[in-house]
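Lab notebook, design round three. We kept the backbone fixed and only want residue identities now. Task for the bench partner: fill in a sequence for the structure below.
Input structure tokens:
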């Protein structure tokens, strides 16, 4: 979401959607690193958006915002759109 060497502070936002019919939660792992494979990057943490009503895949969308302050502290926040 945020390219290497970006000037701090910075905020980046990206929209994600459910990938399966009837999905009632979305797991959101947060990584840092530039490797092509996710397994080769560093996991910072994970959060789960729960309580979604059962809908077809792609109908639930969440916006995830990542804020990095001047000291490099990171905050992530989800917002359910649909």
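Proposed sequence:
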């Amino acid at each position: 979401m945020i390219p290497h060497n970006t000037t701090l502070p910075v905020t980046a936002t990206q929209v994600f959607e459910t990938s399966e019919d009837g999905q009632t939660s979305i797991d959101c792992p947060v990584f840092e690193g530039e490797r092509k494979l996710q397994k080769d990057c560093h996991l910072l943490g994970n959060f789960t958006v729960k309580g979604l009503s059962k809908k077809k895949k792609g109908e639930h969308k969440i916006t995830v915002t990542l804020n990095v302050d001047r000291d490099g502290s990171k905050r992530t926040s989800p917002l359910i759109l649909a």
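Keep this in mind before ordering anything: The mean pLDDT is 90.
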